[in-house]
Amino acid sequence: MARDGSWPPVPEALPAPIVDNHCHLEYPAGDEPTSVETRLAQAADAGVTRVVQIGCDLESARWTADAVTRFPQLLGGVALHPNDAAVLAAEGRYDEAFAEIAVLARGERIRVVGETGLDTFRTGPEGHDAQVRAFRDHIALAKELGKPLQIHDRDAHAEVIEILLADGAPDVTVFHCFSGHAAMARLAVAEGWYLSFAGTVTFKNNDPLRAAAAVTPASRMLVETDAPFLTPHPHRGKPGSPAMAAITARTLAGVLGMDLEAFCTQIWDTSHDLYGAW
Ligand SMILES: [Zn+2]
């Protein structure tokens, strides 16, 4: 996919507000930097009025803990990303880093432990054991704090599910950027888990993901951007921001054959049920 650093236009406004379930506002993106204020204002113009900001390395987690106190539109999540956990473990710094995450996760406006899980795409076999250990630590932390868990599962569906079932999933377990097929979606729904769909569900070649969305009840679905990554079609390859969740929401309502306003209201209600009041 060709890179293009120009910001895409703000999408047409949704008929009812929704929540972006997962983004990284601290992450530098675009040829011309835009402020967090600008991106949140554009998101609100598109109907994306609430955002879950995820900080998944130490620096980003500290940034997130501060940002959620400055921006009323934000709630936060903190964790050590599986790829970072592997690097930290190799450097002998994992325990200290996880201890700080466990402190930050106690913040009143930090409502998510995540993203955590397994990534066999970017981390090789040498980092596998460290990722498994970190995943288990985050599952235990989410259960201890009674907070939702957001999972990062890249090319590791079977083992992520195996660990969740072995350790016992937290009461609220959300697959961030769900990437499984319909069979995995059915299994996740049967287990009581939630599936968060990103811009990947709008990509032209991604019929399997749309098939997974089609078997997911709207009540078990969330919408996210993972901004600045995974910008939806037709802006794929450009930097993303929470406003882009409006495009993904339209696609998902279409896949489910639902009225767009009813779909947005469902996403709003589910997001608030899981994370509490902003
Ligand atoms: Zn992410």
Average pLDDT across residues? 97
One letter per element, helices H and strands E, the order comes to EHEHEHHEHEHEHEHEHH
Shape: globular
State the end-to-end CA separation: 36 Å
- The CATH homologous superfamily is termed Metal-dependent hydrolases
Q: Helicity range of the residues?
A: 40-55%
Which features characterize this protein?
278 residues, alpha/beta, TIM Barrel, 10 helices, 8 strands, 42% helix, globular, binds zinc ion
Can you walk me through this structure?
With 278 residues, this protein is α/β, with parallel strands linked by helices. It has helices at 36-46, 58-70, 82-90, 94-104, 128-145, 157-167, 182-190, 207-214, 245-256, 260-275; strands spanning 18-23, 48-55, 74-78, 110-119, 149-154, 173-175, 194-197, 221-223. It has a single domain, classed as Alpha-Beta Barrel (TIM Barrel), CATH 3.20.20.140. It is built from ten helices and eight strands. Strands 1-2-3-4-5-6-7-8 form an eight-stranded parallel sheet, with helices on both faces. α2 (58-70) packs parallel to α4, α3 (82-90) packs across α5 (128-145) and α7 runs parallel beside α8 (207-214). The longest helix is centred in the middle third of the chain and has 18 residues, at 128-145. The chain is globular, with a radius of gyration of 17 Å. The termini are far apart. Bound molecules: zinc ion.
